[in-house]
Each structure stands twice: as C-alpha cells, then as structure tokens.
Amino acid sequence: MVPTPTIAVVDDDEGVRVSLCSLIRSLGYEVRAYASATAFLDDQGAGDPDCMVTDVQMSPMTGDQLQARLIASGRLFPMIFMTAFPTDAVRNRVMSLGACAYLDKPVDGDAMAGCLAAALHQGRAAARL
C-alpha cells in the first residue's frame, strides 16, 4: 500500500494557509502547515514532506531563501512557489534551482491540483533514480 503523500504548506498569511490546506486535504493528501520558513525548519521531528507549497514573500526568510537553505543542506523534494508579487528574476532563480511551478496568487484550485500531481510524479521519478 502506497502511503498518502504529505504536502507542507508554508505561508505567513493565515487565510491563504487555511484555505490552501483545505484544498489539499480535499485532494486526498496529508498536510502540514507552517506560518513561516523558520517554523518549517524548526520542525525537526516531522521529516521531509513529499512536496512543499510556499509563498515567496515572507519574513524573516523568503520562500526562495528557504529553497536555497534546503538545497544547501541536501533536503531535496519538489517545491511549488506562489506569490502575489511575481517577478521574472525570482521566477528564473527558483525554477533554475528545481522548482516545479511558480504561480501567481490567487491560485486557481485546479491549477494547484495539477501542479501538485505533477510535482509528486516528478518526486517519485527522482526517487527511483
């Protein structure tokens, strides 16, 4: 039996975090929610998720800074970024470092579902290598 994938949601906006977690649960995934990048990093006992959905603009650590920290520590899993303030510079940076998607807020539920399915497929394929 294949375990249910776990998705980590990292967003400092509580409303976005709650609604995104509800959507992800409705798609049949387990969810762990974090109000900041540092809260995710501090959660030592949880283990790595199968995928992460993170906001870009957060304080004190941005989503792209979180990505860099995870890569530097060898924690590699699919990441989906979302932002209300998209820029080509950030998009290019996170995508070049392996992000699965860079979405503009507000994110459409169907688009998120498709991105999650693709990211999890990519993560399973990478794990087989």
UniProtKB/TrEMBL annotation:
Keywords of this entry: Phosphoprotein
SMART domains, per the entry: REC (SM00448)
Annotated ranges, domain Response regulatory: 6-120
Any Pfam family: Response_reg
A Gene Ontology biological process term: phosphorelay signal transduction system
Gene3D superfamilies, A to Z: 3.40.50.2300
Residues modified as 4-aspartylphosphate: D55
Name of protein: Response regulator
Species assigned in the record: Pigmentiphaga aceris
